[in-house]
Design brief:
This protein is of the alpha+beta class. The chain has 6 helices and 12 strands. The strands form 2 sheets. Strands 1-2-3-7-6-5-4 form a 7-stranded mixed beta sheet, with helices on both faces. The protein has a 5-stranded antiparallel beta sheet with strand order 11-10-9-8-12. Strand 9 and strand 10 form a beta hairpin. Helix 3 crosses helix 5. The longest helix is centred in the last third of the chain and has 21 residues. The chain starts with a strand and ends with a strand.
């Protein structure tokens, strides 16, 4: 794995796509050379999420990185990229920070009922019109900060507010403080650990359908929306297309299985959802 680190950048996904575009012009071998390259930054000036929405990426509070996946064969099931990334993030957060990480379909990671991570997978289209590589962007907020008003009610952080160790009055506070300070030192370690897990999951999934199904099963098990009543927005940005449904599960292709109020069932591969309160 090749880790390229920036203090600040416009967007790690944008940089990864620039690298892929340049390599693609040189041929398949050059593109393959970028496989398992990771672009990481402490801050993004133009971080983005789905539909080019702004992704809050301030300095000092998190880590933002993009893992490049350039396999030998074209990518046939792009939804698997996001699912594998979500599983990798959850595993790393639990191992490094001892938190209970959950997945909100399709690309968000939650801790303590707050979104702490977003995932954005973007493909590079080759000369044959197929996806020959992908940039898998992952943004994680480790500490709380002043979130913009439009996300303040749902955004959170892995560890919460960073503490001042000199002010820790008891053993519990001291432990929390040490964990918080350690997080500041291991942001790149976190990016590296997640990327290694992600590449491992993708490689094993490409070699064995059984291995992929195990990843898909974990993705489903980590979901906190199974059985929930939700509102589905199939055409993102078009609220008129929204309808009510109940989540039945998630299948092996990471599609959301839902039952509508009229009893009919659907398998969703894209769109947005919100939990009905």
């Amino acid at each position: 794995m090749n880790l390229i680190h920036f203090k600040t950048i416009d967007s790690t996904n944008a940089e990864a796509l620039r690298l892929l575009e340049s390599a693609g012009q040189k041929g398949a071998a050059a593109l393959r050379d970028l496989d398992q390259t990771v672009i990481a930054a402490y801050e993004q000036s133009a971080g983005r999420g789905r539909l080019n929405r702004s992704f809050y990426s301030p300095a000092q509070t998190g880590i933002y990185f993009t893992a490049i996946h350039a396999p030998k064969n074209p990518i046939q099931a792009p939804a698997r990229l996001t699912a594998a990334a979500a599983v990798a993030v959850c595993r790393s957060l639990e191992e490094l920070f001892n938190v209970d990480a959950k997945i909100k379909w399709v690309n968000d990671i939650y801790v303590a009922e707050k979104k702490v991570c977003g995932i954005l997978a973007e493909g590079h289209i080759g000369a044959q019109g197929k996806i020959d590589a992908a940039a898998i962007g992952i943004g994680i907020n480790i500490y709380t900060s002043d979130f913009p008003a439009d996300i303040a009610n749902r955004a959170g952080a892995v560890l919460g507010k960073e503490q001042n160790c000199s002010q820790a009055q008891d053993a519990a506070a001291s432990t929390d403080c040490k964990a918080s300070n350690r997080a500041a030192d291991i942001r790149l370690e976190l990016a590296r650990d997640i990327s290694q897990k992600l590449f491992g999951l993708l490689q094993s999934g490409e070699q064995s359908e059984a291995a992929w199904q195990a990843t898909a099963a974990e993705y489903a098990e980590r979901s906190f929306i199974i059985g929930k009543e939700i509102t589905v927005i199939p055409i993102i940005g078009d609220d008129k297309s929204a309808y009510a449904a109940t989540v039945l599960g998630i299948d092996k292709e990471a599609r959301l299985l839902v039952r509508l109020d009229d009893g009919s069932e659907r398998a969703l591969s894209s769109g947005e959802i919100s939990i009905r309160i």
